[in-house]
Amino acid sequence: MLKKLWAQLLGTRIGRSVFRVGLPASNLQRAQVAISSFLLHMQPAKVHQRTLKFSTTLGLGLITLYLFFILIITGVLLMFYYVPSTDLAYQSMKDLEFVVTAGMVLRNMHRWAAHLMVIFVMLHMCRVFYTGAYKQPREFNWVIGVILFILTLALSFTGYLLPWDQLAFWAITVGSSIAGYAPIVGEKIKFILLGGHTVGQAALLRFYVLHVVLLPGAALVLIGIHLWRVRKDGGLARPGEPAFTQEELPATALPTTKSYGLMELAHGTTPAVGVEPDDEVFTWPNLIFREILVFMLVVVLLLVLAIFWNAPLEEFANPVHPPNPAKAPWYFLGLQELVSYSALWGGVIVPALIVVALVALPYLDRRRAGIGVWFSRERKVALSIFSICLVTMIVLTIIGSVFRGPNWSFQVPWKPNIVAEER
Amino acid sequence: MASSELRKLYPWFIVAGLAVGGLVILAFYKDQFREWKEWQHAYIKQEMARATNEAQRAAAALIPVEIKQIVLPDVGRIDRCTTCHLAVDDASYSGFKQPLAYHPNHAQHPFEKFACTICHQGQGLAATREAAHGHVEHWERPMLPMKYIEASCAKCHLASDISGAPKLAKGRALFDEIGCIGCHKLKGSGGVIGPELDGVGARRSPEWLAKHFRTPAAVTPGSAMPPIKVTDEEIDALTLYMLSLTEERLDAYYTSMQVLPGPEAGQRLFLEKGCIGCHSLGGQGGKVGPALEGLKGRRDATWIAAHFRNPQATTPGTMMPKFDFTEAQIRALTEFLLTKTEPGAVNLLKFPAQMTPIERGKAVFKKYGCAGCHGRDAMSGVPNPNAKTAQQVPGLKFVSEGYNKAELRKRILGGQKEINKLNPKGPQPPLYMPAWGGKISEGELDDLVEYLMSLLPKTEKTDF
Amino acid sequence: MNSMSGANSNRRDFFQLVLGWGAALFAFCASLAGAARFMIPNVLYEPNQRCKLLKPEEYEEGATFIAESRLFLVRKGNTFRAVSGVCTHLGCTVLRNSKGNGFHCPCHGSQFNENAVVTGGPAPRPLPWYLVELSRDGRLVVNAAHVVAADKYLVV
After folding, report:
1. Which ipTM did the prediction report?
2. Does A80 sit within 8 Å of C40, measured CB to CB?
3. Is residue C107 one of the residues assigned to a domain?
4. Would the pTM of this model clear 0.80, i.e. be above it?
5. Which residue in the set A3, A80, A95 is minimally distant from C39, CB to CB?
6. CB A301, CB A67: distance < 8 Å
7. Which residue has the higher pLDDT, B276 or B183?
8. Is residue B278 within 8 Å of B286, Cβ to Cβ?
9. Which domain holds residue A345?
10. In A357-396, which positions are buried (b, 16+ CB within 10 angstroms) versus exposed (e)?
């Protein structure tokens, strides 16, 4: 009955003008829903059965995307109260906490979503690697993914400074100093990034503009391309998919008299209809529904985190009194640990190697073995090398995070070193 | 048609939808529940109960429940204390329990100009009890305990010349007397053995300071500082004085606001305008106008202010010219004349000429904090473990027997970094004689030597 | 799947879907309401409606402009009153006119006489007069939340 009412509502002239296709009743309409909607056309009308299986991707890329959207929404809301000034930034944090309705919850959501996004980007990359999903024809999409990974770190890093507390101030000071170790351009980059020699008002404003306009804008465009290519490259990688061949269409194959739309694939007389492989299912409702469900679960997780755990806010930034030890954001602590041995290695060679290796990966690992299979036995060497690097970075990060105390001395987390202040 | 696998997810869909909605509502519920609202309701209830007629009751019912704040942008203060402390300016609430108590004695420091945290400290931006009082992590300036409240006066007033802060003045005097400055540097002068004290009040908690005065080693292991032998009351005064050393100076702001005329500003003006050319104060100055010693007993503020506006109005025929002082300047001068004209209250020059060299030398001894190690009156030193001199810093009583004047000068200027050890294998004694060359002036050194040479009473000669 | 249980499960599916979408819609609306409430500020950083001025004797005869509250304090001998300096037309700040016996608005030419009554231009209403009181420490207080008649004075 409700369904009828809804169908009638959609069937009116206005309903039609908004939702081109009503509630789909036939397969044709199910295809049209996906094709004719702006939001849903990112996906093909039909997807492979495998796509629906949770174990194929663990939903990692999707979750990352959702976190990005949540970050945009919460971020825009926070911008209504945040003032990017060294005098007022910290005060706006306190206002959000103490006087703005739901201010703290939104700030918490933004903070935890940012951390989660860094984690999920990394997990997503691991998934793509361990399932060999970056091989031809998806090489360049992996490269875009690497750029998005760097953008994610940059977004998180620039956001770190904005509260203008001790944690923010010193994490950025240390983090930008690591950047300063790059040869020749390092100091210049640091100077331009900070808009001066020290972290001050100029740096705050620059980080703010990067954080709220440039980086999210760039990320949004690249995410669009990333998703579009997933679709154009044949959806999720799967074992036994036909080998990629660059087809050259004869010029006469395309009708010249009219434009050729996607919808035509779904029209009744198109030969493709009816002979689709049996293991393909309609995106609507099978995939869409699952995607919505994942979104809700992400929101639940974030709300729980945000309601029960507050984002940190330390003392007002004090340029003359660094905390001991002054640590970079956690995702740079592996590098900071390396910097403590050798600035050149930790600050330049290792990060450069990581980026170069990640970008080059799909072009080096060209064997068409183990595509779409988790931990394929045919890729033992690649898997081992990647895993060793990964574990090393994780271990370094853990050491830098919890095993380093005052003066970067070794400590065990359950028994922190205490050093008397020399003042 | 939906597949059976998809159908299995429907219940999850319901659960997730309800969970999101429920959590959003929970977030808001948590957000709506704020401590300060309870106090505001309590206040409204109190106002209702006190209302004697219908109009008052209606007014009470209309009191809004909202965050209240005093904003002082020029000194970076936004104080929301009055969100809970709703009756601070209502005398009829005197004697009430906090947070609804009346704040007495605020006439000279009106709330709208001074807010709360300038004197009381704490976290003005916060709106929960714990956070606002500042007893939370990541807030460096918790509320000052009331026994140390006078420390805040020093943000505007000089410790030595504010009548309303006797404890602060006492702490300041003790600091000089004990000779802390012999080891610690303050405002650019003082010794180098201990840490500098500028801004110490912003770095250290009252508990830390008090503990440190009792047993320095308890808070700073291996500290060279000897425990100070003073009463608990004196420790409080010293702690209070330390807390006042915050490097936060607000007097310029308040003077510009015409809120605070300040006797210091008055003193500066007094010297600047050359009042001393005609009037005398502290034994110095001209004889043309009346001497100002003891003026407080003779004239009141209204008379003094009126006399600055127009001398002829108060003293017809007087020679005093009419200076075009601003009202703020007049207030400052009046304040100065009312607080500094007690006999002996002010030395406009550093050392009055009529002091003997020995008296001056004693002042120098105090100025450079020699007493900190050599003891008050230079008679017995403080402990200095493993020093050959009986494990303590030597007293200076017999200095005239061991040194002639030239040797003494050399020792003061050059210091003695290496102190002879009692047990040669033991640790280096922590205290040593700093070199005062470059810090002490020639004249001061002469006076100091005179003073030290005079310490041994003529009757007490010993044989070495 | 036989037809009987098919109809049953169909109904159950539909019921669950409606409930699910209802819950989702509810969550969405709650979030939207939350965002809307977030946008309403709980504290303002603008001048207080009650503006505390100096002592009466510090003001000269005639109208004195109080910039922070955009109002004029008008002294006539020992009487004080305060008038808004915001034009009732479109909110510009009015000026004292050259004759010194009223106000005019530079934006669209409204004219007000010394009792702030409109004498020319597009302004629809006279400028409002505010309550002037004496605080406990003897200073003038203008309450911009309390409009009074033009002939109401504070006599000091």
Report:
1. 0.82
2. no
3. yes
4. no
5. A80
6. no
7. B183
8. yes
9. 28-237+277-317+325-370
10. ebeebbeebeeeebbbbeebeebeebbeebeeeeeebeeb
